[in-house]
Write a structure and sequence with these properties.
alpha+beta, two-stranded antiparallel sheet
């Protein structure tokens, strides 16, 4: 059995928040907070909140906008969080709902009936519940007869999911595996933290991994995959069933997204660059043979440095396309969005790399080649 990527799917939320809108709401919140804590600020007990700016955001990240499932709460200085009403057990969960939208596009592009799929993997940074698995809910809604499970490797969840799906195909446990990445990252972001309030956006992606015998003619060969993890506290979220988060994030910031950005940059860039170069050697692929790098969309400066270390020169927009400016960081979905939107121009035999990296630390590479 030989696994290939048959198709991908993408669902984008209808609401956008520009940097200008985000800065306006953050600065209004900061002014309100400073007014409420005026006495403590004057006494030196707490520091005043400083304003954010579009210049700061773009220089730090390269992000210009993001999509969100709820805009009203995010830009409301009195809330500073998305308002996503809890649904009843009889209604489909929002994470499953957006995963299905991306999945249906991938299935349609591959000409695949859901009944022909054998397994579903839901790979994402944050699951809205512990059980039943989101993947099983997606499986049920699509009418798939087989097995399903959730997996979380933070921003690397998609590449870990692709290798897992490919391994199932190689082992003969499945011929068609649907891997979905529903990412409502706006829900774990502390919108009142100046250093990170701009980072994340929402989206859902899907990848269909199948045996070559049933794959459509227009598919991608999987030349090799590799996964790596190394423990680090520099990106962390302590929310879990043993504790509860304050919805505002104030007072319990560790129950939301927390990172030491400079440390992450310093440690992850060389780790990922070395991993890619090692895999190029193992697979006997030259860097110049890579038509394109579809890197995790976390930070424009990180991607610029990683691609230059791998390619040996500053990568062009064609060699390392970005969706970060439009989508912001969408965790595990980022590299899949880049692949989905920037791969139709490939000719048979051309090679590329899907690569992700994030909390854990975790990193994954998937080298692909357009089928002849």
């Amino acid at each position: 059995m030989t696994p290939v990527i048959s198709a991908t799917g993408l669902w984008t939320p209808p609401h956008t928040v520009t940097n200008e809108e985000l800065v306006e709401s953050f600065n209004a919140w900061a002014d309100r907070w400073n007014a409420e804590h005026e006495a403590d600020i004057a006494a030196g007990k707490v520091e005043a909140k400083t304003h954010s700016s579009t210049e700061f955001i773009e220089k730090a990240s390269g992000i210009k906008s993001r999509y969100v499932v709820d805009k009203s709460g995010v830009v409301d200085p009195a809330l500073m969080r998305p308002v996503i009403p809890e649904r009843t057990n009889e209604d489909i969960s929002i994470l499953a709902e957006i995963a299905i939208k991306a999945a249906n596009q991938a299935l349609e592009r591959a000409g695949r009936d859901p009944k022909d799929v054998d397994a579903v993997i839901c790979a994402a940074s944050n699951m809205q519940r512990a059980y039943p698995a989101m993947a099983i809910e997606v499986q049920e809604a699509l009418g798939i007869d087989g097995f399903s499970f959730d997996m979380n490797v933070a921003c690397s969840s998609a590449t870990f999911g692709i290798q897992t799906a490919a391994d199932f195909v190689r082992a003969g446990h499945a011929k068609s595996v649907l891997m979905v990445n529903p990412e409502i990252t706006s829900g774990h972001l502390n919108w009142t933290d100046r250093d990170s309030h701009f980072i994340f956006g929402d989206v859902a992606t899907a990848v269909l991994v199948e045996d070559i015998s049933i794959a459509p003619k227009d598919h991608w060969k999987i030349l090799g995959t590799h996964l790596k993890t190394k423990f680090s506290n520099n990106i962390r979220n302590n929310f879990g069933f043993l504790n509860r988060a304050d919805p505002s994030g104030e007072g319990q910031p560790d129950k939301l997204f927390v990172q030491e950005g400079r440390k992450v940059f310093k440690e992850v860039v060389p780790m990922v660059s070395a991993m890619i170069q090692s895999e190029l050697g193992r697979l006997d692929i030259r860097a110049e043979d890579l038509r394109r790098l579809w890197l995790h969309q976390a930070n424009a400066n990180m991607n610029r440095l990683i691609s230059s270390k791998v390619l040996g020169h500053e990568a062009s927009d064609d060699e390392s396309p970005t969706v970060l400016d439009e989508y912001a960081n969408t965790s595990s979905a980022g590299s899949i969005i880049a692949f989905h939107k920037h791969s139709d121009d490939f000719k048979p035999g051309e090679k590329g790399l899907i690569c992700s990296f994030g909390a854990g630390y975790s990193a994954g590479t998937v080298f692909v080649e357009k089928a002849a």
